[in-house]
Amino acid sequence: MNKSPKRRFITGFDGLRTLGVIGVIMYHLNPNIFSGGYLGVPIFFLISGYLITDHYFNTVDYGGSFSLSNFYTKRIKRLYPGMLFVLLASGAYIVLFLKDLLYHLDQIFVTNVLNVYNWWQIFNGQSYFERFANNESPFTHLWTLSIEGQFYIVWPILLILFTKYGVKKSRIFGFSMVLSIASAIWMAILFKPGVDPSRIYYGTDTRLFSILLGCGLALIWPAEKLKSGLKKNDKLKLNLVGLLSFALMLLMIFTIKDNDPFLYRGGMFIFSITTCIFIAVVAHPDSFWNGVLSNRVFHYVGTRSYGLYLYQFPVMIFFESKFKNIADHPILYPVIEVILIVLVTEFSFRFVEQPLAHAKWQDVKNFFRSSTSVQRVLALVIAVISMTGCYSVVKAVSAPNPNVNHSELATKINKNEKANKAKKQKAIENLKKAKNKQDATGKMSDADYARYKKAAKSNPINTEFEKYGLTQIDLQRLKDVPMTAVGDSVMADGSDNFLKLFDDKKVIVDAAVSRQLDPSIDILQKYKDQGVLASNVMIGLGTNGPFNIQQVGQIMDLVGPKRHVFWINVHVPTRPWEKTVNGVLDEATKKYKNLTVIDWNGYSDGHTDWFYDDNVHPNPEGSMYYSAFVAKEILKSLDKK
């Protein structure tokens, strides 16, 4: 199929959008697939910056007049039908089936319409506890639309002013690049390891560099002025640059994790530059890559990429609210979700977005005269959904706050963290003074047994744990077991029990919400450098995301072969990585003799009464079972040495 140069690069960009939206959706479905699928967002930003700037100068350079009002009208008709329908349709579902999500829906609706939702997210966004309380917002991803909306409002005005005052393209290019670099540097400055990165992830000022790189590319590489007929060697070089940039894009998407400091300290900027180079290659009419990305499938997906992006979160969250055992069906459920996303997107594209994008007042009058019965039924369905959605927005004004940040779980973890902070510092000081002269193994000798038996009779301790499988001798013995523990919110939930079971003057329990594996390596290294890393190391990680055998190897290498690692596997059936994490740990036990996996997942199987509603964090009763089981398994392992 022959295409004009403009048609070729537009369809090539459809292919780029396809890659971006597939990466984003797969990442949200399962981070195992694309660990850096969130890098799809810069692709959208770059294309927007390029197309808008290229369109402006393609108009004025050929003597045309750029109409700001016409531009805004087209943008509104292109973007708002889909955005409004996803808000209203989701609102309709929420008011009927998930009323806990009504809170703040009115503010979410208004801030999206006004293109300031990303800033609302920064100041009112969700906490960790909302993720695991079946209360995750289906609108979190819409922050990108607000940044693009702000760009669509401001950038054309700046271009008009630049043109009016005769500013050369080279100076506009310099202006774009300076702002882009400043934005990337600002992101790096604001990033603090271990601190929630939402401010820099959602901020217009810290994400502007991708859009501005696209703007700069359009100024020096305008699509309409790119001519075919390159020499064979030049064409080869062009396609080789495309191959290298595309390969680097894929490498970064598959290897950079969302908690990697490098991502915010230049990684995202490097990815944007790499993608910018690839876009330049795709835009050229002699590019092999343009042909690859212009296939019919990519063109189809690319034309619907906006809808696919819009509906991904609502479909996933609404589906997973009804089918909670995601880990039991790691392939089937994601496939169903993708099918639903495609079907909902197609419905919206055909019957909402396209009709409204091209509608005129005369079309509305003609609809009631000449529409078929099927069309009228569809219009009625859309109207009912929209009206129900409007009702949900009004209802949200008086909706009660679900208060997940003050739930029993949140309150307990916050209390544990405060109580543990002082104890942890005291334990570190004690261990430094003792120069880490703890019992090397914790293994019990005959003399130890006699001592513990005597103490059990004369001075019983922690008797409340006896009903959970620990004997009084076990409880006495645990006080002599040296331990350094690092974990996530599940361990933080049970940290008070661990500090009872072990000697809190000599045992470090470092657990925090939302913690993943990579930051924990630095924490363990810090304790090792201080000389307070015990001969036994307990780890409880994997609730918040998957890891691989190489990452486990990093921890095992850091700890060293003379220390024993007790790794508690995960019970997180609401996330697709449960089996992946537990499978990696089982694989690691075959490689590392000093690694023992404590099978909390198997022990807790079938005991939903041990957990809060999220089916992830143990409730007070479950926490007793959790900590007692872990302690008993540690003692059992020490006896085998």
Automatic annotation (TrEMBL):
Q: Where is the protein found, in the record's own terms?
A: Cell membrane
Q: Which GO terms describe its cellular component?
A: plasma membrane
TM stretches of this protein: 12-29, 35-57, 78-98, 142-162, 174-195, 207-224, 236-256, 262-285, 297-319, 331-352, 373-394
Q: What protein name does the entry list?
A: Acetyltransferase
Q: Which UniProt keywords apply?
A: Acyltransferase, Cell membrane, Coiled coil, Membrane, Transferase, Transmembrane, Transmembrane helix
Coiled-coil region list: 414-441
Q: Which organism is it from?
A: Companilactobacillus pabuli
Q: Which GO terms describe its molecular function?
A: acyltransferase activity, transferring groups other than amino-acyl groups
Q: Name one GO biological process term.
A: lipopolysaccharide biosynthetic process
Gene3D superfamilies, alphabetically? SGNH hydrolase
| InterPro entries registered for this protein in UniProt | Acyl_transf_3_dom, Acyltransferase_3, SGNH_hydro_sf
Residue ranges of the Acyltransferase domain?
11-344
Keyword hit for Magnesium: no
Its membrane topology is listed as: Multi-pass membrane protein
